[in-house]
Amino acid sequence: MKLKYVTITGIDARTDLARLKEIGKKYPFAEFGVLMSYDWSQNGHRFPNPTQILPALRGSNLNLSAHFCGQMAKDVACGDISRIPNVDDAMSIFKRCQLNLRASGMFNTLRRVKPCFNIEEVIIQMHTPDTFKQFLKEKLPQHASYLLDASAGRGIDTPIEIVTHPGVHVGYAGGISPDNVASKLRTLLEHESDDVFWIDMETLVRTEDEWLDLDKVERVLSICQAMLTYYTPCKKG
N or C: which end of the chain has fewer CB within 10 A? Predict the structure, then answer.
């Protein structure tokens, strides 16, 4: 399979944006996720104040994705973006958005989901491969891709079960860290398929007190770069 993005989720109020921009230039396959919630102030350090972080990221030229959580994710799934803070900034800076919700209880709604803002790709979080396979049995929404994430942002190391479906873009998460990213990425890159995928990590690239750790981020991305350098010529051969 072919890697498109390595997503680092959880830009926060203490993230050094100047350094993040340099990291983004060095590793063009890196995508940086911003966790978005109406209750951001009650959800810990990894949820920044959207009225501050979104204007700060405008014009950064980073690959950015919005990760909508809780009621905000449900509203976006239903097409209601009226309550999203700084909605104009959200419209201009995000290339993808992700809906962090319990998909199994919202199949009918999610089959009708449409891109919001100017975003062309909507990522639907699936907590188990079985849930995802059940969703795949009926009509799929356009412009949607899917993140397999049994950990749901908790940093629990879960085995990768590869799911392929014609024309469907799938990402993988679940306890990915600087210590295991090489083995997990190897499993995906060595799978005999031309499918494009991405990997996502959140908890295990943070400090013990929950701030994004750019040293860990750079370590992860450098390992991924080395893996891509090794596997690309192998695929061509």
Answer: C
